[in-house]
């Protein structure tokens, strides 16, 4: 019951007037970020991170995590009204959300989307409240070999679960590790891969990479496609909301299944996007209305939205308890922790109780605030999308430059941001996933440190990663995840008649 | 829009092969830098280049496989039409200039010109709208970042002259 007491303390922290204020501010900014093309959860949080440098860490994390929830909510608005997913995880929401809007049922679709987002998030937060302290206390016993095994598992899951070709995922990931290695080696204090450049002494900051890869890269992609918005009208009144809420409980099975898929995909670093697709796909196959999916079925909005939000929220569980972020946005939040002087990982639950539980409590409140904000302000947010791209684009580019500069007050970082932007555009076009690249930059140093410390202890023998049942189990799980697609392929070859 | 045939452009296969080769080159640089830093065991265990050396090897190896896969059964379609690439460059080049002059002019002046140019050239807005947005955005930025959240942004001679 100690957790419950802690949680109440957390609510006391989150309900302080200043924290409520940053919560609402964060949600509103987040929805705007979610609505605008080119600004997503990860780079939106990265750009606004410098604003929190002068705040107390608890308020700072509340604001940034609320930006994240806002972005998750916001993605649905553009998907349903304009058939343009504001975020990758809301692509699946367009399948049924947009047809509903075309039939004049935009209000129902939006209400269903927001409500299922809330349900998914709530489910994931409750799970975090119950499970995170257990995982953290378990992880306190981890030595370097176990730590490396956890990183290994996280990165292998990327290879096995992502929809991109496995060797492209590996290449992207390894580029991230290589960028992380540039600069001062933390163990020997030696310089490496700097090639005499003083700018590279401190290595590459992943925040710059996030802003460039996701922000600038996305703008370039949008420029290439040439955007034209033609959208439905957005209006939600109380009658529509209540009507839709009355219908929602009949989809409880879909909802529960999507919550579970979301939580699972969020904890393993697959993230919100595959979670929403998977949830939509399964719902289509299982539901008795499955044949109507794609023509404007409420259930087809409920499934992806619930899963995306559950996954987005659950991604914070490994970040808080293990120091391994489950998504790029969680990685940016983790970078924030380091900047505010906190050490991510299981010790947070021991040393920074107020911070951790304040954050968890704010997740309950933030999602409730988010639901109210989006339900009441949809027309305003939809109006933002009518601002032409040739005004939005330069403003976002300038914002990205400001964000990149203010991380280290360095104009060299702004140049790097542009380079990352062009690289991001090319990689994205060539079907390389960017999330593992970013996560590898964040975790590269820690993974390397754990790896080298383990080898030091074992005199260079790789056997240390299988030396006890715990580390062995995690490594084997990692290997299974790594070869998952190959295993699946082999399995379907063995049973050719069962392949759909 | 385009001067030559409207649906011409570089093929996806060619661009992808180029990108893959660049990644492999990056891997080779990493391997070279790691060898310079030392990849064997020293007095304090594995030396600085030990870990990145294998990372570099992985990059080269996976690029080789990606190159093979891409050439064998890659996408035969277009990477993008020339007109689309021109659109992309019409953002990249001004942004590069914007980023390049920022250390000399400061962020504000560069942003005003950049936003103004973008809206006038690509958006064809009237000067009134252009001026309003191009001046408004930096002012709002100044208030939010420097005044309320105390984050200093790069300034040039004009801000100094104004005493900001």
Could you describe the 3D structure shown?
The complex is a heterodimer of chains A (500) and B (164). Chain A is mainly α. Chain A has one domain (2-485). Chain A contains 22 helices and 2 strands. The radius of gyration of chain A is 22 Å and the shape is globular. The relative contact order of chain A is 0.18. Chain B has 164 residues and is mainly α. Chain B is built from 6 helices and 2 strands; from the N terminus they run αββααααα. Chain B starts with 11 loop residues before the first helix and ends with a helix. At the A-B interface, helix 8, strand 2, helix 9, helix 18 and helix 19 of A face helix 1, strand 1, strand 2, helix 2 and helix 3 of B.
Q: What is the number of helical segments of chain B per DSSP (H or I, 4+ residues)?
A: 6
Structural class of chain A: mainly alpha
The total of beta strands of chain A comes to 2
Q: In what range is the share of β-strand residues of chain B?
A: under 5%
Largest sheet of chain A: 2 strands, antiparallel
Q: Which series of helices and strands of chain B comes N to C? A: HEEHHHHH
- Mean of all residue-level pLDDT scores of chain A: 85
- Biggest sheet of chain A, strands in spatial order? 1-2
Kindly report the average pLDDT value of chain B.
Answer: 86
Fraction of residues in helix of chain A: over 70%
List the helices and strands and how they pair.
The complex is a heterodimer of chains A (500) and B (164).
Chain A lengths: L1 H13 L2 H19 L5 H8 L8 H26 L8 H12 L3 H34 L4 H18 L4 H16 L1 E2 L6 E2 L13 H20 L12 H10 L4 H16 L4 H15 L12 H16 L1 H7 L5 H12 L8 H4 L1 H32 L4 H20 L2 H19 L5 H23 L11 H14 L1 H11 L6
Helix pairs in contact in A: 1-17, 2-4, 2-17, 3-4, 3-9, 3-15, 3-18, 4-5, 4-6, 4-13, 4-15, 4-17, 5-6, 5-13, 6-10, 6-11, 6-13, 6-14, 6-17, 7-8, 7-20, 7-21, 8-20, 9-18, 9-19, 11-12, 11-13, 12-13, 15-20, 18-19
Chain B lengths: L11 H26 L3 E2 L2 E2 L3 H24 L8 H24 L1 H17 L3 H22 L8 H6 L2
Antiparallel strand pairs in B: 1-2
């Amino acid at each position: 019951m100690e957790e419950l007491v802690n949680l109440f303390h957390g609510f006391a922290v989150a309900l302080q007037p200043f924290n409520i204020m940053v919560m609402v501010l964060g949600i509103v900014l987040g929805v705007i970020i979610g609505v605008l093309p080119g600004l997503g959860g990860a780079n939106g949080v990265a750009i606004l991170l410098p604003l929190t440098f002068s705040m107390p860490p608890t308020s700072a994390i509340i604001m940034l995590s609320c930006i994240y929830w806002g972005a998750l909510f916001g993605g649905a608005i553009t998907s349903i009204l304009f058939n343009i997913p504001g975020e990758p995880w809301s692509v699946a929401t367009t399948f049924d959300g947009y047809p509903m809007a075309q039939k004049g049922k935009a209000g129902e679709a939006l209400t269903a989307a927001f409500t299922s987002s809330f349900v998914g998030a709530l489910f994931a937060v409750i799970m975090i409240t119950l499970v995170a302290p257990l995982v953290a206390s378990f992880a306190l016993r981890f030595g370097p070999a176990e730590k490396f095994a956890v990183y290994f598992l996280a990165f292998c899951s990327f290879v096995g679960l992502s929809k991109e070709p496995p060797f492209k995922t590996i290449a992207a990931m390894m580029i991230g590790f290589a960028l992380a290695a540039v600069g001062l080696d933390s163990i020997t204090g030696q310089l490496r891969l700097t090639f005499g450049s003083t700018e590279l002494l401190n290595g590459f900051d992943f925040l710059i990479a996030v802003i460039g890869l996701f922000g600038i890269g996305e703008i370039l992609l949008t420029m290439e496609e040439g955007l034209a918005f033609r959208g439905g009208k957005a209006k939600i009144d109380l009658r529509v909301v209540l009507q839709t809420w009355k219908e929602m409980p009949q989809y409880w099975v879909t909802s529960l299944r999507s919550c579970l898929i979301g939580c699972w995909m969020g904890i393993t670093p697959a993230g919100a996007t595959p979670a929403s697709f998977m949830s939509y796909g399964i719902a289509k196959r299982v539901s008795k209305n499955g044949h109507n999916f794609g023509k404007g079925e409420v259930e087809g909005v409920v499934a992806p939205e619930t899963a995306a939000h559950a996954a987005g929220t659950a991604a914070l569980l490994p970040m808080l308890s293990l120091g391994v972020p489950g998504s790029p946005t969680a990685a940016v939040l983790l970078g924030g922790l380091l900047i505010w002087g906190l050490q991510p990982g299981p010790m947070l639950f021991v040393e920074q109780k107020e911070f951790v539980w304040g954050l968890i409590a704010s997740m309950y409140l933030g999602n409730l605030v988010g639901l109210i904000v989006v339900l009441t302000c949809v027309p305003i947010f939809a109006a933002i999308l009518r601002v032409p791209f040739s005004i939005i684009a330069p403003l976002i580019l300038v914002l990205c430059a400001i964000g990149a500069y203010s991380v280290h007050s360095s104009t060299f970082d702004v140049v790097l941001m542009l380079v990352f932007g062009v690289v991001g555009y090319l990689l994205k076009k060539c079907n390389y996933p960017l999330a593992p690249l970013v996560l590898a930059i964040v975790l590269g140093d820690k993974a390397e440190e754990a790896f080298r410390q383990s080898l030091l202890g074992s005199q260079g023998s790789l056997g240390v990663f299988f030396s006890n049942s715990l580390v062995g189990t995690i490594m084997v799980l990692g290997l299974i995840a790594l070869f998952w697609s190959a295993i699946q392929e082999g399995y379907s070859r063995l049973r050719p008649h069962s392949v759909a | 829009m385009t001067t030559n045939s409207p649906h011409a452009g570089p093929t996806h296969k060619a661009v992808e092969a180029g990108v893959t080769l660049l990644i492999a080159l990056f891997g080779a640089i990493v391997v070279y830098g790691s060898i310079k830093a030392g990849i064997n065991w020293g007095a304090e265990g594995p030396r600085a280049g030990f870990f990145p050396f294998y990372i570099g090897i992985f990059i080269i190896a996976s690029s080789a496989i990606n190159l093979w896969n891409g050439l064998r059964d890659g996408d035969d379609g277009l990477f993008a039409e020339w007109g689309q690439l021109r659109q992309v460059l019409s953002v990249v080049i001004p942004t590069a200039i914007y980023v390049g002059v920022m250390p000399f002019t400061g962020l504000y002046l560069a942003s005003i010109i950049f936003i103004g140019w973008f809206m006038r050239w690509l958006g064809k807005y009237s000067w009134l709208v252009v001026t309003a947005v191009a001046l408004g955005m930096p002012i709002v930025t100044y208030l939010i970042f420097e005044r309320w959240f105390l984050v200093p942004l790069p300034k040039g001679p004009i801000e100094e002259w104004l005493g900001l």
